[in-house]
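To whoever picks this up:

The parser on our side crashed when reading a file containing two proteins. I've narrowed it down to the boundary between the first structure block and the second sequence. Both blocks are reproduced below exactly, byte for byte. First block:
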Amino acid sequence: MYPLARPWKGGEGAGISSNDVISACDKMAREILASPEVMAGRTEPPRIVIDAKYFKHEATFIINKNLFTDRLRVQLHKATKGKLAILSWEQAGMVEEERALENEGIVEGTGPTPPAQRWDFRLGGRIASLTRVNSRTGERTAYIQVTLELIERGTGRLVWTDMFEFKKVDMDDWVQS
């Protein structure tokens, strides 16, 4: 059940605020770039997929998971300057359409189209929450936990992970649907 999306104190909205998303993603980008397991000992930039496909939503409030994955992908792309090859599998259909048009001779290509690149690492994780309402005071408290992981292709090995926690408190009544 999701609480109705009414503002919490401070106008933050139910659950995670924009400042929470920004600060968590900025921290994640810095940590991923500093991770020796992701960055060290490579002759080519590691290929990484950051999308919401394996980012689970298990919280008691509504949030668009793409707020995290899009911001993290953009932050890493800006900061890496070629140190990471960020693959946009979310847009793979666009690439496949162009390949099909080239193969049919509808558009001119520059030669054989190379196959799509395989990824080295892919983002996974979850957003979870625990909500409590004090029946005496009406105060509602939400503990929100965002866990992110980078998984290595082939081995499934966890090469980077972090957890980000937020606590929100409000005095208004909370109606659940």
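<<boundary where parser fails>>
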Amino acid sequence: MMYTERIIEFFKDNGYSAEVIQCYKGGVKKNAVVIKNDKNICPQMIVNDEEISRLGLEAYCNKMLEAFKGIKQSDISDISDIAEKIKEFEFVKDKIFVQLRPKTDDKKALKRDFLDLEEIVRIDLGSASAVVSSELLDSLYKVSKEDLFEIAEKNTEKMVQLFNMADYFLAKIATNSENDIDIDINDSLKLLDDNLYVITNKDERMGAGIICCSNIMDKLLKASSKKRLIVLPSSIHEVIIVNYKDAENYSIDKLLELTDMVMHVNSEVVDDVDILSNSLYVYNGNNNWNIIKK
């Protein structure tokens, strides 16, 4: 019996109806458990194969069950109600933002191409988020795809944060969790004197979509006093801007060296679900980009 069938059987034995579906985390297809009880539906719970191997399937299922019970007792006390509310455009219009991820064969999500990646729209629900589907747009929102992305990008612009890279990652290591640093972009442009800096969003989650906002990128380019910006895809959560004095004059060989570094970090350090790209990007202003790849 496959472990997905055993998970379903476990929850059935504990009085719950469950199903295992396929979904996307970052740009990676994963199995996820959806547990139902009365009218409440649990958000997708991604199945962690490594944790199953470490804990054993029975212990892992018990852990998922406890997590489900915790969700039911949290602020999201009636997920059914939330599911109904996200069908209303007035409820979501100020909560949508753009996420950038690798290209997928996801047929459900509303998406469009951005460079060699894809841009999707998510709804910020506080402790969770939901992907806007093509079905939601077509049947309920009654706005065009272009207008929805424009609204989401304008909301995303308001979420931007800028950090010195060393300070950002040292804070991550020190806290081993998401930190509370809050820096307004207008106060942060002084960081452009540093060699490397990080762009993300206020939650520091799925923040790489900031580079989809040409207004932000043009503002950063102007502040840098350079003709172009080199963008390293750190992860789906943030990107790194290379701001060395001679960076705008890097040769193609030098850019390819940086691409090698990106590929190495992705293979050795970044979790597969957090990988954004193995390419390197150059921003020339006015929404004009170059893609550097091996």
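After patching the parser it read the second block fine. The chain is about 35% helix and 25% strand. The longest helix spans residues 252-268.
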